[in-house]
Design goal:
It is built from three helices and six strands. It has a six-stranded antiparallel beta sheet with strand order 4-3-2-1-5-6, with helices on one face. It is globular and about 60 Å long. By secondary structure, it is of the alpha+beta class.
Length: about 210
């Protein structure tokens, strides 16, 4: 925000001195909006028959966290099935120590993988299993506090999932994708959530 309120349009950036030009909030908003009209976006809307007048661009804004404050970061999925009033959830948590990227990883670095499952809303009592240890932790020890932080994360994910269910009451099967961080002094929190698209069956082509 400092680049937008400093009274000029010349660099370097007040937020990042390594950037020779300003990198303000309004520039970021313009770039996001412009991506709505890039070639791939236009072609995808045409492919799915989506009318331009009925769609718009949304912008997600969240706090930027300096690397030294990141104790861990990761991605997680939560798949929910509701059958005959019985709700079950399974999760896969992939995380890494510090600010080491999980979404764009160094292929030489192995992340930690944890799986979990629970029934109903009993996320705090989920069955946890460490499938793989991180190559960044000493002797493969857990990236976060075992088992407290993982259960805290699952409770947060389940709370968000329940809100999703309330918004889409007709869904009896879905999967959500989350990004999360563990920040100094040890606070675990969700960063964002997305719905994972399910594949749609395509009928076989009819040959003349």
């Amino acid at each position: 925000l400092e680049d937008d309120t400093d009274g000029d349009t010349v660099g370097p950036s007040r937020c990042d001195p390594l950037e020779s030009r300003e990198r303000g909030v309004f520039r970021a908003m313009r770039r996001v909006y412009a991506s709505f009209y890039n070639e791939n976006a236009v072609l995808e809307r045409l492919r799915h028959g989506i009318r331009e007048a009925e769609v718009g661009m949304a912008i997600l804004v969240h706090f930027s966290v300096p690397d030294p404050l990141e104790m861990a970061n990761g991605v997680a999925t939560l798949a929910v099935e509701i059958r005959d009033g019985h709700r079950t959830a399974t999760s896969r948590i992939v995380c890494q120590l510090g600010a080491e990227s999980v979404t764009n990883p160094d292929v030489r670095v192995i992340p930690e993988v944890v799986t979990a499952s629970f029934s109903g809303d009993a996320a705090e009592r989920a069955e946890l299993s460490r499938v793989q240890g991180s190559s960044r932790t000493p002797e493969g020890t857990p990236v976060m506090t075992w088992e407290t932080d993982y259960r805290t994360l699952l409770v947060q994910m389940n709370t968000a999932a329940r809100a999703y269910e309330a918004y889409y009451p007709g869904k009896d099967s879905y999967e959500l994708d989350f990004e999360f961080k563990r920040l100094v002094p040890g606070r675990v929190g969700l960063k964002q959530m997305r719905s994972v698209p399910r594949p749609v069956a395509v009928p076989p082509p009819v040959l003349p």
